[in-house]
Amino acid sequence: MSKIFDNFTLYCTGTFRSHDKSELKNIVENLGGIYAKGFNNSLSYLVVGSLKGSTKTSKALEKGIKILTEDEFLEMIGE
User: Fold this and answer.
1) Is the per-residue pLDDT at 19 higher than 90?
2) What is the signed CA dihedral for 30, 21, 7, 45, rounded to 10 degrees?
3) Given 9, 34, 35, 65, which residue has the most CB atoms within 10 angstroms?
4) How far is residue 27's CA from residue 46's CA, in Å, rounded to a whole number?
């Protein structure tokens, strides 16, 4: 299995239609990434499910953290 998230730290926020958060954590870790325990400034990616006006999304934009939608994340992992 490809390790597409090697050296990357990810965190997922919001509601996801495809997987629950424990499944997302396992996917990230199986692909070589680190799943953060919470939002922090050292994230490589913030994966955003359905939510509106998220404080985490705003903070990520301020800090220059790459934001992925659920669909973008699924495309990256080949789903």
Assistant:
1) yes
2) 140
3) 65
4) 14
Query: From the CB of residue 24, how many other CB atoms can be counted at a distance below 10 Å?
Result: 21
Q: Going by DSSP bridges, is the β-strand pair 34-35/45-48 parallel, antiparallel, or unpaired?
A: unpaired
Task: Lay out the sheet containing 66-69: strands in order across.
Answer: 34-35, 9-13, 45-48, 66-69
- Among the four given CATH numbers 3.40.50.10330, 3.40.50.10190, 3.40.1650.10, 1.10.490.10, the one describing domain 9-76: 3.40.50.10190
Q: Are strands 34-35 and 9-13 parallel, antiparallel or unpaired?
A: parallel
Q: What is the DSSP string of 36-58?
A: -SS--TT-SEEEE-B-SS-HHHH
Q: The whole model's pTM is what? A: 0.91
Q: How confident is the model at residue 51 (pLDDT cuts 50, 70, 90)?
A: confident
